[in-house]
Amino acid sequence: MHVADSHDLIRVHGARVNNLNDVSVEIPKRRLTVFTGVSGSGKSSLVFGTIASESQRMINETYSAFLQGFMPTLARPDVDVLDGLTTAIIVDQERMGADPRSTVGTATDANAMLRILFSRLGTPHIGSPQAFSFNVASISGAGAVTMERGGTKVKERREFSITGGMCPRCEGRGNVSDFDLTQLYDDSKSLREGALTIPGYTMDGWYGRIYMGSGFLDPDKPIRKYTKKELHDLLHKEATRIKVDGVNVTYEGLIPRIQKSMLAKDREGMQPHIRAFVDRAITFTTCPECEGTRLSEGARSSKIAGINIADACRMQISDLAEWVSGLDEPSVKPLLGKLRHTLDSFVEIGLGYLSLDRPAGTLSGGEAQRTKMIRHLGSSLTDVTYVFDEPTIGLHPHDIQRMNDLLLRLRDKGNTVLVVEHKPETIAIADHVVDLGPGAGTHGGSVCFEGDVPGLRASDTVTGKHFDDRASLKPEVRQSTGALEIRGATENNLREVDVDVPLGVLCVITGVAGSGKSSLIHGSIPASEDVVSIDQSGIRGSRRSNPATYTGLLDPIRKAFAKANGVKPALFSANSEGACPTCNGAGVIYTDLGIMDTVATTCEECEGKRFNASVLEYRFGGRDISEVLDFSVAQAEEFFGSGEARTPAAHKILERMDQVGLGYLRLGQPLTTLSGGERQRLKLATHMGGKGGVYVLDEPTTGLHLADVEQLLDLLDRLVDSGKSVIVIEHHQAVMAHADWIIDLGPGAGHDGGHVVFEGTPADLVKSSKTLTAKHLADYVGA
């Protein structure tokens, strides 16, 4: 054996990232290895935080210091030995950027190729590829430029023009926003009478004093009697320096001021009353000039075989692939070949139902992950490590087989494939399995099993015991107490769907990926007072955010500490007055070393406790605030449940967190360290205390281990038994089998879907065995 062939293992020794307890594993190269274990057991910490992270860091170090300055700096993971690494390509679940300018086409280079194609073959010819880009504005100008030639200054006249494809009206966004003026002011009142109805714009506050004392407006005249100039000054006047009550201030019209102070912020980050105002006051309508295509008239006028670029981007990708296959032009043969391959990859990976103009931010986690896979499918690279994070998320059992084939194909080309996964169908195809656990959080972080799939089945681990779990159909189902009527639903691919969603029961909406499930539920049942919608969008939070701040648990805790010690609550916040002055409440001090790793050292002043020393002297129930934040949810539930530390408001929130299976989480753990499944369950715990009577859950089994699915089903039962209606969009057969009522959409995806193909009980669905879902559910329950 040649010495170069002896490096056939990735060796990890002494990994301690997040909750890993000195983990040591040896992973075979050029094989498919699946990492399993309950949610929070340390799978992502080992695969992403250790192996993939170190591989990326070492590749970055091969670039020049100049280039490294533009790259994210990655810290070396806390591990003793990492040996045998190869280049890692990470395909994670991170949502794609929700920028309105980002679409499926721009995210996958398909648009770039289409633009070149139209610039070469489109008639009439209108310009270079950027003439078809909705992100490039048309611009032209002329003027004199002065330059030095041979020691003398010369003036020359220069002209330039750029032809872009951006629609000038909506600036390439596809829709235009408009202000509903009736929500900004009551035109029957004058300013002095309090005409402005914008939150915070009271007449006795600064904004009121500025508008009344500006001199541009008559404070005693009702707004409906304003002249055109006065109305323009109230709504649109540009920033102007004026003096009010002897103070220099800036006067600005209401609309530019609202755009800067409110609309520039992320909607999720707004305070609830501001968000409610923005939702009322701003209306979004399709741009009347480009009809939502984002493109200028010139870009839409150029056609190939009667199709313009807007029509091509609007087509379902499977249809577009067919259209591109019909083009035969030798001058652009290499381009057509590459474009055909990209579009065929979409179809092959099960995303043929999308269109290139679909905004990237609207893709689900599973769709985003598969979109990222596309560029790797035809790659000639071998001996690469591909790292996947639950690639079966959002996939119907029918589609999982296709995903398995792709993973095996990548392996068979000579690559190492590492997959973090919970679905038994994917674990079953593994060459090697690493099972982490035994529990989650501090109870996990150890390797419980290493070996092949039959060995896992026979093992005594949590995964081994639950590997062949199968939920059975319920002997009796609950009867509905009413129905949500959906009539004529046409959003996205829905075909005039009429359906009654039963209330007072557990109703599951299912169907293949892209059949129209989310369009039906999220499009027809908007979140309102009575509807609590818990989707898969990420939790926004910095490393200062933690489960205690996110769930609102910290408020009753701070108040309890303040009351017991006779001081103000702000002292018990590490982001406010109680923060350690040296590290500003972060607990660590970050030293930026330019191109080198940023070094984080524990703050010596507070020893990582984040609080001022004087704050830690205040106690409640015999504990200081830093000790309480170090509790797990289960410990805190016990602490605040009885005795002198009894705090009902805090105990209620902790109880809900425990019910969703997060009893192991530490209250002060940064949100950035939580896995996808943990984040969704944290959202569920937060919303469970809401007043809503209808709960809409979008794939709540995401990131859940086989053993945790049972706990989720118990939780859903408890919600229904307490009088709530639960609607779940789900592919997991255990949830389908447990439902009281199933609505199955299909029969296919995209324009082959959008119909209700079955309504009824799970038992009736299994008997019918006509739809794809029926066949897979029948196999699952052994019918």
From TrEMBL:
<keyword id="KW-0963">Cytoplasm</keyword>
<protein>
    <recommendedName>
        <fullName>UvrABC system protein A</fullName>
    </recommendedName>
</protein>
<keyword id="KW-0067">ATP-binding</keyword>
<keyword id="KW-0227">DNA damage</keyword>
<keyword id="KW-0547">Nucleotide-binding</keyword>
<keyword id="KW-0234">DNA repair</keyword>
<keyword id="KW-0267">Excision nuclease</keyword>
<keyword id="KW-0228">DNA excision</keyword>
<keyword id="KW-0238">DNA-binding</keyword>
<dbReference type="InterPro" id="IPR003439">
    <property type="entry name" value="ABC_transporter-like_ATP-bd"/>
</dbReference>
<keyword id="KW-0677">Repeat</keyword>
<comment type="similarity">
    <text>Belongs to the ABC transporter superfamily. UvrA family.</text>
</comment>
<dbReference type="Pfam" id="PF00005">
    <property type="entry name" value="ABC_tran"/>
</dbReference>
<feature type="domain" description="ABC transporter">
    <location>
        <begin position="4"/>
        <end position="463"/>
    </location>
</feature>
<dbReference type="InterPro" id="IPR027417">
    <property type="entry name" value="P-loop_NTPase"/>
</dbReference>
<feature type="domain" description="ABC transporter">
    <location>
        <begin position="477"/>
        <end position="772"/>
    </location>
</feature>
